[in-house]
Amino acid sequence: MAAKRNVSVWTRRLALLAILVGGAWTWVSRPGAPEASAGSPAARIGALAPDFTLPALEDGRPVRLADFRGRAVVINFWATWCPPCRVEMPALQQAQRNMPDVVVLGVNQQESADSVSRFMREQGLDFLIALDAAGEVNRLYRVRALPTTYFVDGSGVIRDIVYGGPLTRALIESKVSSIR
After folding, report:
1. HSE value, Cβ hemisphere, 13 Å, CA-based, for 38
2. What CATH number labels 53-177?
């Protein structure tokens, strides 16, 4: 009797696992999943960085990546709830102050302007932040983990990508020195 009950329990667990795996696969494979669309360029080292336009946190004006052509750009995908993102923010702020010819652009992931503004104010941060409210740029760049940072040279080509963090000031300066 106990053996029959154990088989029944394991059968239910396997069925539940199969449903969960199938559901996860369906979610990841759905149209609009975190993959760039078929017609969009891949965000990878050596490729032209996909252009995007997002509203600036400060005043809502459009921030367009292409407007920074001719300058090195550090694109940092982040969120206020992400511990390594929070740790690396002062290093990004310092990089912006020490290298005024470089654009440090934080792309916040699907958080309200109020919560991002509060975080920036509390941390004493004032570098450029764009709000990716719908996660479109996140998908375009195929961001899988936060933080993720792209280093783009003046011609708009992605020269390096750092997945995870936190970034240090020395690492940022090292990466930027190769794209200036």
Report:
1. 1
2. 3.40.30.10
